[in-house]
Design a protein that fits this description.
By secondary structure, this protein is mostly helical. Helices cover 77% and strands 0% of the residues.
Length: 135
């Protein structure tokens, strides 16, 4: 997406990855050599890939439409996927039994954790680019 890459950026990326591997494996080569992945690990990597795609596509989309429309569409599409997976998991059956506190917590997460967070992130992508906004 025409983002500038430099040797400094590449070195930072490699050092960050090495640091994460050292922390996760506690510096043990044996842990690295016997590493295996479960479904949760694969889903985490898929979520990470979706986040990268979101950041990159968001920049391209916001050249054509407003931040608010882009955020609305992205949240709607994400809600469809989340709602569909919740149907499979049986999550909707628990919604009517939520306490007042549960509803307030859900409202807080929707407004602040999602809506306002994505609007701010999309504004950042528009102004400074996807890679810097992600940081």
């Amino acid at each position: 997406m025409k983002e500038a890459w430099s040797g400094k950026t590449g070195l930072s990326l490699v050092l960050s990855l090495v640091g994460v591997v050292i922390v996760i494996t506690k510096g043990s080569f044996h842990t690295i050599s016997t590493l295996s992945f479960n479904v949760g690990d694969i889903l985490f990597f898929a979520a990470l890939a979706c986040g990268v795609i979101y950041g990159l596509l968001g920049k391209a989309v916001m050249k054509e439409v407003s931040k608010l429309l882009a955020t609305t569409l992205m949240i709607f599409i994400g809600s469809v996927f989340l709602g569909g997976s919740s149907l499979v998991e049986g999550g909707w059956g628990k919604v009517p039994d939520l306490s007042t506190q549960g509803w307030m917590e859900m409202l807080y997460m929707v407004l602040f954790g999602t809506l306002i967070g994505y609007v701010i992130f999309n504004k950042g992508v528009e102004q400074i680019g996807a890679s810097r906004a992600s940081i």
